[in-house]
Amino acid sequence: MATLEIVCPVCAELLELTDEDRAELEVGDVIVCDSCNAEMEVTRNGAGEDFELELLGVLTTCPNCGEEFDVTDEMLADAPTIEGRDGVAATLISCPHCRAQIELEFEEVE
Question: Of 1, 13, 53, 107, which has the fewest Cβ atoms less than 10 A away?
């Protein structure tokens, strides 16, 4: 059985899809990375290597209220970048549930 290997665009975790897994996927379905909870939509699922995903967002949990929410590209585009507590650049977003300000730090994926 052939396995398609996909690298998560957020954490670089290797996602493996068997032919059986792919047969169940349709365009528009969402795959969630087990490591970082990034959500990716299937945009193409053809034969062989003809398979594409589009990053939708990253699921995170608010440390203030405990509710889960997606950090989307739109949220990140609108968010200011600040110097975090440890001196590292952080993106400041608001929880959509309780409006708490949350600092997100991103690591470069090579």
Answer: 1
pLDDT number for residue 44: 93
Average predicted confidence (pLDDT) for the chain: 85
Structural domain count, the chain: 2
In the chain, how long is the greatest CA-to-CA distance? 48
- Please provide the DSSP assignment of 13-42 as one string: PEEEEEHHHHHH--TT-EEE-TTT-EEEEE
CA dist list (Å): 43 to 26, 40, 75:
8, 9, 22
pLDDT of 1 higher than 60: no
Q: Is the dihedral of CA 106, 108, 53, 1 positive or negative?
A: negative
Distance, CA of 107 to chain centre: 13
Q: Is residue 100 part of a domain?
A: yes
Same domain, 81 and 95: yes
Which range marks the domain in which residue 25 is found? Answer: 3-57
Instruction: Write the CATH number for 35.
Output: 2.20.28.160
**Tokens 């792919």 — which residue?**
22
